[in-house]
Amino acid sequence: MSIEIANVGKRFGGFVALDDVSVSIPAGQLTALLGPSGGGKSTLLRIIAGLERADTGRVEIDGVDATNLPPQKRNVGFVFQHYAAFKHLSVRRNVAFGLEIRKRDKDEIRQRVDELLALVHLEQFADRLPAQLSGGQRQRMALARALAVEPAVLLLDEPFGALDAKVRKELRDWLRRLHDEVHVTTVFVTHDQEEALEVADEIVVINEGRVEQIGSPDQLYDEPANEFVMRFLGPVTQLGDQLVRPHDLQIQTGESTAAGVPGQVTRITRIGFEIRVDITTADGQAVAVTLTRNEFLTLGLSVGDTVHVRIAPNSPTTTVADHGRAPSLATSA
């Protein structure tokens, strides 16, 4: 089921939550709404679900105008960050709840619940209460419950935000595999850039109620539309007036320094398989460069060394906005 959001606006008093937002979400795609807290992404998700009413604009689901439809008539499944489980019901009864209130046949309910518990790998926990599950298991239960009624659209509001980093990583891998199996149109809200880059087919970057850029993870990372997207989607550093990814900088030593900016190595930090080299340029600018271990060993760097640093050819850069002017996108030659 495709989703069309056209010129949607939403205010809460004097606060503009969404400002003329238009987004097209193709059927069967996993789309991330990515942005900082308070940027409007959860408001947009709730408008799609019918839990909030837009002040202006239109929402269509599979070609049907859903702008004024109540949530129960939109055929969407919604998963909240904090599970919203029925604490007194078993895992099986939680998953079955939506089917039971729709008065489906008992055999049909049992078969559907068994299929879903197998899909989310919770068969052995069917008779436990939610409190007896781990956070990751409770979130998988919530996803199974949302899928039970076979929604046309699955909406996830920061589904892994309450979990620790290791469990989040496991669950986002699982969500991607699950989506590839069930192919339901899925929209999820996140402020975690890595999560969006790893899981989504397409990312909608939202900031201060406006869409900054829409594209695939590769497009947004390699071709950011402006300074905000460049800064928000992945690590950045600045060399002169150019924002650049730290791994797109090259350190030069010895005689091969003609094209580089002179500076001094002020700190060297190993972060797992990467080495971060902090350099202070001759004009006092702090620059961070990320190297692989082999690159670092080849250069033989030490704190205090005089080096030159340059942007690698064909690397995406963004010119830092000056005096309120819009930033421009450039590619180094």
UniProtKB/TrEMBL annotation:
InterPro entries: AAA+_ATPase, ABC_SmlMolc_Importer, ABC_transporter-like_ATP-bd, ABC_transporter-like_CS, Mo/tungstate-bd_C_term_dom, P-loop_NTPase, Sulph_transpt1, TOBE-like
Matching SMART domains: AAA (SM00382)
Gene Ontology MF terms: ABC-type quaternary ammonium compound transporting activity; ABC-type sulfate transporter activity; ATP binding; ATP hydrolysis activity
Keywords: ATP-binding, Cell membrane, Membrane, Nucleotide-binding, Sulfate transport, Translocase, Transport
A GO term from the CC aspect: ATP-binding cassette (ABC) transporter complex
Name of the top EC class for this enzyme: translocase
Domain ABC transporter intervals: 3-233
Enzyme Commission number(s) of this protein: 7.6.2.9
UniProt xrefs under NCBIfam families: 3a0106s01
Name assigned to this protein: ABC-type quaternary amine transporter
Lineage: Bacteria, Bacillati, Actinomycetota, Actinomycetes, Micromonosporales
